[in-house]
C-alpha cells in the first residue's frame, strides 16, 4: 500500500513538473510577443527586473557542453530523482534515498560542467591553428566568409560545428562580429573575445585582419604554454587531493575485507547510514575545495 501511494505521488510530481515547464515556456513566449508588440521607444527604456533563473543557467551550460537539453528535461530529471528517493525512503532505505537525491540533483550539473570544460579545452587548443588558417585565407585574397567556410571544411570538431553555425548566420546577412559572438556565448571561452572584437573593428573601420588574427594566435600559444607550466607546478597539490580522498576509501575497503562485520552495525542503523552519507559528502566537498585551490584558471 505504501509503495502504491509513493508511486502515485511520484507520478503526480512528474506531471506537475511537466505542466510547470510547459507553463513557463508559454509565459516566456507570451512575454516575448508582448515586448515585440510594444512601442520601440518604450522598449529602449525597458529594464528587466531580474537576471536568468537557475533553469535558464542550466540550459545555457548545457549548450556550452554541446548538449541539446531544455528546462523541461531538467525538471523531469529532478522530479524522477525526487520520486525515486521518496520510494526508497518509504521502503526504509534512507542511505539509498539520500544518495539518489544527491545524485539526481548534483550529478547532472557536474556532468554538464565537466563536458563543458572538456569541450572548451578542446576548442581552446584548436583555436590558434584555426586563426592561422583564417589569416592565410584572407592574405591570399579571400573574404572573411571564405575563411569561415575553409574552417568548416578542414577543422575538426568542436571547431567545425561552431563555425558551421557562424557560416549559416553570415548567409542570413548577420554581421561577422555578431555571428562570431555566438561562439563565445555557446562555448563560454573568454579568449575568443579578442577575435570577435578584431572582426568587428575590421568590418567597421577596416584594417589588416590577417595580421591581427596572426597576432592573436601567437598570444594564445604563449598563454597556453604559460598555463601548462603553471599546471605542472600545481600537479603536487592535485596529487595530494587524490591521495587524501583515496586514503579513507582504501582503509574502509581493507577493513571490510579483513572483517566483513566491522561496519555491519553502521550500515544497518539509520544514524550510521546518515553519518556515512555525511562523511562521503564531506570528502567530496574537501576534494572540490582542493581542486578549486589548485586550479590556476581561478587565480
Tell me about this structure:
- The protein has three domains: 2-38 and 53-117, no CATH class; 120-230, Receptor-associated Protein (Up-down Bundle), CATH 1.20.81; 234-298.
- It contains 13 helices and no strands.
- α3 crosses α5 (94-139), α5 runs parallel beside α13 (270-293) and α8 packs antiparallel against α9.
- With 299 residues, it is an all-alpha fold.
List the helices and strands and how they pair.
Layout (H helix, E strand, L loop, with lengths): L1 H36 L2 H5 L9 H11 L6 H20 L3 H46 L4 H11 L4 H13 L4 H12 L5 H13 L3 H25 L1 H24 L5 H5 L1 H24 L6
Main location: membrane
Protein name: Type II secretion system protein GspF domain-containing protein
Membrane topology: Multi-pass membrane protein
User: Strand-residue fraction?
Assistant: under 5%
Shape: elongated
The CATH architecture term of the largest domain is Up-down Bundle
Series of secondary-structure elements, N-terminal to C-terminal: HHHHHHHHHHHHH
CATH class category label of the largest domain = Mainly Alpha
Poorly predicted regions are 1-17, 34-51
Structural class by secondary-structure content: mainly alpha
What's the number of domains?
3
User: Mean pLDDT, rounded to whole units?
Assistant: 76
* Helix amount: over 70%
Ends: how far apart? Answer: 55 Å
Report the CATH topology name of the largest domain: Receptor-associated Protein
Radius of gyration (Å): 26 Å
Tally the beta strands: 0
**Largest sheet composition:** none
**Count of individual helical segments:** 13
